[in-house]
Amino acid sequence: MLFEIKHSNHNHYTTVRIDNIICVSHCHTSYEILFVTEGKIAANIDGLEHIVSNGECIMILPMQIHSYCTVDNSKVEISIFSNDYIFDFYNETKDKELENPVTNYDFTDLQILNKSNDRFEIKSILYKYCSKLIKNGIRSAEKSSNDLSTKMVMYIQNNFKNNISLKQMAEKFGYNYNYLSAYFKTQFGCGYAEYVNRFRLEEAVKLLKKTNHSITQIAFESGFTSIRNFNDVFKKEYGISPLLYRKTQT
């Protein structure tokens, strides 16, 4: 998930491949098109679930809250790009949403998006899928980038490595604590602490796979306040300890 946020800057285009994708609800300022090359995934966009199968792709617009999970052994390739890559489409769909963000794709186009260094060639392919998706229909967005749920997600994903609390968030946005707690559960289907821990676990898993940092170091780098809490939360989610998880990845 964090790679999307890091590549949301001006005039940027990048791609990434992921096996058996799963990620917590998040949002960012970039566009992304996720292509399923094997299996099947479920994509949740602003509370609506879309099933995307091999040979299909789905577009996420800037600031849409979304998450992914694998339904059937999946391989996906994701193109991430800033607004100025498809500026005309951005202007056409600003403050709107796609009625159906899923369409099929041509494998040759995907190869170009992954391998080409010609930004005009890349833009031409991206516009091709913008055209396909806009023909599915567009409508006024039900929420804006200033929507409370969007602001909460952005706050959490920018600060999850710190010791943040729901009380702090309530004070920051000027809401009653009890109201915000109930609102959060309604919007995200879980409590605040559980949601924040999902971000921390994603970061921890990345560090377990890609670094030689100690388990204790990874716990604190991911935002956990104690190694005991990290081990308990990790084992509850993955069924094994962080140390054993790292051994299964080697």
Textual characterization of the structure:
The protein is an alpha+beta fold and 250 residues long. It contains eleven helices and nine strands. It has helices at residues 2-6, 87-93, 107-115, 119-134, 148-159, 166-173, 177-188, 192-210, 215-221, 227-238, 242-248; strands at 13-19, 22-26, 31-45, 48-53, 56-60, 66-81, 96-98, 102-104, 138-140. The strands form two sheets. Strands 1, 2, 3, 4, 5, 6 and 8 form a seven-stranded antiparallel sheet that branches. A two-stranded antiparallel sheet has the order 7-9. Helix 8 (192-210) packs across helix 9 (215-221). It is globular.
Q: What is this structure, in a nutshell?
A:
With 250 residues, the protein is α+β, with helices and mostly antiparallel strands.
List the secondary-structure elements in sequence, H or E: HEEEEEEHEEHHEHHHHHHH
What structural category characterises the helix and strand content?
alpha+beta
Task: Assess the beta-strand content as a share of residues.
Answer: 25-35%
| Oligomer classification | single chain
Uncertain stretches of 5 or more adjacent residues:
none
Average pLDDT for all residues: 91
Largest sheet: 7 strands, antiparallel
Number of strands: 9
Number of helices: 11
Radius of gyration, rounded?
19 Å
Helix fraction, binned, reads 40-55%
Please give the alpha-carbon distance between the first and last residues. 22 Å
Shape: globular
